[in-house]
Request: fold
Amino acid sequence: MFNSAIQEKRSMHIVRQIREAILRGKLAPGHRLPSEKDLLVQFGVSKHTLREALRALESMGYIEIRQGAGGGPVICEMDMDNTRDMIASFLYFKNVSVKNLCEVRKIFEPYLARLAAERLDAEDVEKLKALNEAYRKSLKRKKPAMKDEVSFHILLAKASGNPVMILILDFVNNLLIDLKSHLKPGLHFSEKVLAAHESILEAILAKDGQAAADAMYSHICEVEAELEELREINEDESVSEAS
Reply:
C-alpha cells in the first residue's frame, strides 16, 4: 500500500502517504493500519521515525493509537473540533483580524439567511427561537451566553446542508468567540446582537429571503464596527500603559 519514505523529512513523508490513503478512501474510519513490523518494511524507516509519524497523525486527529491486545493505530473519523483546531493552528500566526472574519461572514451569511427563509423546516425554526430565548434569559442575568449567540449562526449554516459552508462558518464564528473573549464587549453589544437575531428570525418566519439577507448583512456590519472600536480602545490603552 505504501512506498519507501524519501530520505528528507521521512516522518512527514509517512504522514502524507497515510493521510492521502485516508482521504482517498483506501483507509476508512475504524480500519487498523498494518502492524508496526509491516509498516517498517513498507516505509523502510526506523521505529523512531515511524512512531514520530504516527504521533503526528494522532495529533492531527487522523488516527487513534489504542493500547493493549488488538490495539495499534486505528483510523478515526475527522470531526468538526479536530478540523477547526487544525485550521486554527495554521492561522495562529497570521494575525487574523475582526475585519478578516467579517469579510468572510458578509459573503456567506446573508446567503444562508436567505436560504433559511426559503426552506428552513419547522424544527430548525423552533431551535432558532429557543436559542434567542436562552440568550434573552442570559442577558437578564447580565451574563450573556456567547455560545447561544454563535449557535444561532452555526444552525443557519447547518440548515444549508452544505458541509463546506458548515465548516467555514463554524470555524469563523468560533474564532469570533475568542476575539470577543479578549475584547470583552459589554451588555449593550449583546443587546444589539439579540435585537439583530430577532430581526433575522422575523424575516425567516415571514419567508422573506431578501429581508433576512439584509438583516444579516446589517448585523455583521454592526458587529464589525463595535468590535473594531473596542480593538482600537484596547490598543490605545496598551500604548498608554507602555509609555
About this structure: Residues 209-242 form the longest helix (34 residues). The longest strand covers residues 63-66.
